[in-house]
Amino acid sequence: MSRITNRVVLGAGSVLLASASAFGQLGGSATVTPTAGPGAGVWTYAISVNNTGTTPIGTLWFAWIPGQNYLFSTPSNITSPAGWTPATFGSGSNFSVRWTASGTATDINAGSSLGGFSFVSTMNPTQMAGNSPNFNVPVTTSFFYSGAAFSDAGFRFVAPVVPTPSAAAVSLLGLAVVARRRR
């Protein structure tokens, strides 16, 4: 009888060790870069993801937390990196975009980065960098999941909207002109 008990204990210990090593830390960041166009009053937003955790990222759900969509303009012309599929969610004045990897081969591995996520919106960069008028939280509040959406607890983050070098240069030039006129 003691032999069976020992085997059960060893078996349970082996399962416990295997389970403990399967869990990792989900974490990361993303940056959102706006460019004007493809038409007047329209902006293209490119998103780059950086996995800073120890677990692969298999889902990026942008401008969303469970139950709330933060884009107040319908996203269009959505593009994805190879092996990722986009989907839009929402209605009225509340939208989000979710990208899901087709499998573990296209996940964003720990320590890696991936670009190629983008969409077009009539929201300007100031609006994108601000709060959602419907929920009063940053529009770019988003979630990562290690697999499909809801496959784990997820990781919530806010992606900064960074100006393109040309937009930053135009802004600095504008400030210089204003400063010069004041003199």
Low-confidence segments: 1-22, 167-171
| First-residue to last-residue Cα separation | 94 Å
Extended strand count = 11
Q: Helicity level, as a percent range?
A: 10-25%
CATH architecture designation: Sandwich
**Strand residue percentage:** 25-35%
Rounded Rg: 22 Å
What pattern of helices and strands is seen along the backbone? HEEEEEEEEEHEEH
Strand order of the largest sheet: 7-8-3-10-11
Question: Which word captures the global form?
Answer: globular
Protein described:
The chain is α+β, with helices and mostly antiparallel strands and 183 residues long. The strands form 3 sheets. The chain has a 5-stranded antiparallel beta sheet with strand order 7-8-3-10-11, with no helix packed on it. A 4-stranded antiparallel beta sheet has the order 1-2-9-6, with no helix packed on it. A two-stranded antiparallel sheet has the order 4-5. The chain contains 3 helices and 11 strands, in the order H-E-E-E-E-E-E-E-E-E-H-E-E-H. It has one domain (25-182): Immunoglobulin-like, CATH 2.60.40.290. Strand 1 and strand 2 form a beta hairpin. The longest helix has 21 residues, at 2-22. It is 24% helix and 35% strand.
Features:
183 residues, 35% strand, 5-stranded antiparallel β-sheet, 3 helices, alpha+beta, 24% helix, Immunoglobulin-like
Describe the structure in brief.
This protein is α+β, with helices and mostly antiparallel strands. It has helices at 2-22, 125-129, 165-182, and strands at residues 28-36, 43-51, 59-62, 64-65, 68-69, 76-79, 84-91, 94-101, 113-121, 141-145, 155-158.
